[in-house]
């Protein structure tokens, strides 16, 4: 089942696509493999493309974090972070990952940031679907 919000339909695929977009942005910015914007920015070469990409990433993070903060707030962000941390400990107890490895901890922290931003982008539309109440941003005049 999908909900019509404006001109777009929203369903589970909408949540997944927003989380995948957040994962791409976060892991393109930094990841422990050594292939990321961070590592590229520190390497030798022309500076102009790095500044351009850095500004684009800064603007992207600013808009995503602002939307996440506005929709989830501090308590909502803590809840999503707590769920991600709990899943990490559950995976370690199941023997699927080892949190003793620093790269695994980095990947877990970056995934937590990405899932929090992805959930923040999805929350408003999911809230409308569950309650029928639409968010509206209040303005002071």
- How would you characterize the largest beta sheet? 2 strands, antiparallel
Radius of gyration: 18 Å
Query: Number of helical runs?
Result: 4
State the oligomer: single chain
How many strands appear in the DSSP assignment? 2
Helix fraction? over 70%
- N-to-C span: 39 Å
Q: Would you give an account of this structure?
A:
This protein is mainly alpha-helical and 141 residues long. It has one domain. It contains four helices and two strands, in the order ββαααα. A two-stranded antiparallel sheet has the order 1-2. A hairpin with a 2-residue loop joins β1 and β2. α1 packs antiparallel against α4. The longest helix is centred in the middle third of the chain and has 46 residues. The chain is flat. The relative contact order is 0.16.
SSE layout and pairings?
Layout: E1 3-5, E2 8-10, H1 12-29, H2 37-42, H3 48-93, H4 102-131
Antiparallel strand pairs: 1-2
In short:
By secondary structure, the protein is mainly alpha-helical.
Keywords:
single chain; 141 residues; mainly alpha; two-stranded antiparallel ribbon; 4 helices; 2 strands; flat
